[in-house]
Structures are given as structure tokens and as C-alpha cells.
Amino acid sequence: MAIDPEELPPRKKPAGVALGEDLSAMSAFELSERIMALEAEIARCREAITVRHSTKSAADTFFKR
């Protein structure tokens, strides 16, 4: 059974920050919010890197590399 694309619910825009987005139309407040969101994402990435290094160190110790 074929689905009519017009019957599907509209797609939501992805939440968050799009890299390379035009900044000229954003207010100072919006830019500050954007910076805060990016800094939070950077912190999240750094934490993930730390976890991966810990896992690798534990594996290296276990296998005595």
C-alpha cells in the first residue's frame, strides 16, 4: 500500500546549531545562546574523548601492551 506524502506529518527542523549558518540575521542574544550551546556540545565531546581514553588505557593494561 503506497503512502501519500501529503498525509505524512510535517518534518521538524533538527534542534540545535547548524554549522556554517548565516549569523547576520541573529541578535546578540541569539548569538550568545548559540555560543552556550556550542560550548556545551564541546564539553560533551571532550567528556566522550576522556571516556574513550580511559577505556583504551584499561584495555591496554589488561592485555599488557
Furnish the topology, listing elements before pairings.
Elements: H1 28-62
Description:
The protein is an all-alpha fold and 65 residues long. It has a domain at 27-65. The chain has one helix at 28-62.
How many strands? Answer: 0
Global outline: flat
Taking the sheet with the most strands, its summary is: none
Question: Helix/strand/pairing class, anyone?
Answer: mainly alpha
The DSSP helix count reads 1
Q: What is the helical fraction, as a range of percent? A: 40-55%
* Order of SSEs: H
What separation lies between the terminal Cα atoms?
Answer: 57 Å
Beta-strand residue percentage: under 5%
Mean pLDDT: 87
Radius of gyration over alpha carbons?
A: 21 Å
Key terms:
65 residues; mainly alpha
How do you describe this structure in short?
With 65 residues, this protein is an all-alpha fold.
